[in-house]
Specification:
single chain; four-stranded antiparallel β-sheet; binds adenosine-5'-diphosphate; six-stranded mixed β-sheet; ABC-type cobalt transport system, ATPase component; 9 helices; alpha/beta
């Protein structure tokens, strides 16, 4: 069974008003366990609207969305369970960094879910290690004093610290300098090798998609207009 299954999903914003607008129209998509699936498309094509269905921020108005065995159309869908299993790295790290110090920031999620003491410390150490931030060096550093690339790593460590089954990355390298971008791509490549996470990668960057993704969906005007392996989509005749 696919880890993410989307069938004929549609979404209208402001339905029944003069401003009604169809943001998604008949979208179908699957992601298998351990797969990296990319979603590509211009601004306004529906990418954010689509990924907001993956952690239950939006419920399907029409069609089917099933994520980690949870049917989002069901009124009994366990959204709490879903949010623990789906980690989202938002486009702007500022949207998910709330604590003053790096260690507290990474600990925030697992603490909220009840982890304490040594188990919590081990979890934070592990997550920081995965993103290449040395625990002893960085845990007491103020988040505001870090570079943009380091802040993105802290945000990713905070998401990983919850040990999600599915990781959604919304333009993970947007706005980074070339070196930070390379570092983050290396971290993501290693993460998929080591952890076998299912990853949804939203990206404008075809090079990044070709390097990381097994499969890619191209959205335009709320529809999937193309899908295939990056090789088949980007090959020049
Ligand atoms: P279409 O929309 O062109 O009718 P489907 O949605 O039925 O096509 O999918 C066509 C093929 O694409 C499927 O047989 C499937 O093997 C492949 N496919 C779709 N999504 C993925 C994915 N995430 N990973 C690997 N293969 C995929
Ligand atoms: P993308 O992430 O690809 O830029 P979005 O999913 O943000 O696309 O937007 C898809 C369409 O839906 C756009 O036309 C956008 O203006 C519209 N839209 C997005 N969010 C809202 C909202 N909260 N209310 C009304 N329209 C929206």
């Amino acid at each position: 069974d696919p880890v993410i299954l989307v069938e004929d999903l549609a979404r209208d914003y402001l339905p029944g008003t003069p401003l009604a607008h169809r943001a998604l129209d008949g979208v179908s998509l699957v992601a298998g366990a351990g797969e990296v699936v990319a979603i590509i498309g211009p601004t306004g094509s529906g990418k954010s609207t689509l990924i907001q269905h993956f952690n239950g921020l939006l419920r399907p108005q029409r069609g089917r969305v099933r994520v980690a065995g949870i049917d989002l159309a069901s009124p009994r869908a366990d959204l709490r369970a879903l949010r623990r299993r789906v980690g989202i790295l938002f486009q702007r790290p500022e949207d998910q960094l709330f604590e003053r110090f790096v260690g507290d920031e990474v600990a925030f999620g697992p603490y909220k879910y009840g982890l304490r003491g040594d188990a919590l410390r081990q979890r934070v150490r592990w997550a920081m290690d995965v993103v290449g931030l040395d625990f002893d060096t960085f845990r007491d550093r103020p988040v505001f004093a870090l570079s943009g690339g380091q802040r993105r790593k802290v945000a990713l460590a905070g998401v990983l610290a919850l040990r999600p089954e599915i990781l959604v990355l919304d333009e993970p390298t947007a706005g980074l300098d070339p070196q930070s971008r390379e570092e983050l791509l290396a971290i993501l490549a290693e993460l998929r090798e080591r952890e076998g996470l299912t990853v949804v990668l939203v990206s404008h960057n075809l090079d990044e998609v070709a390097r990381l993704a097994d499969y890619a969906y191209v959205l335009a005007g709320g529809r999937v207009v193309l899908h295939g392996t990056p090789r088949s989509l980007f090959a020049r005749p």
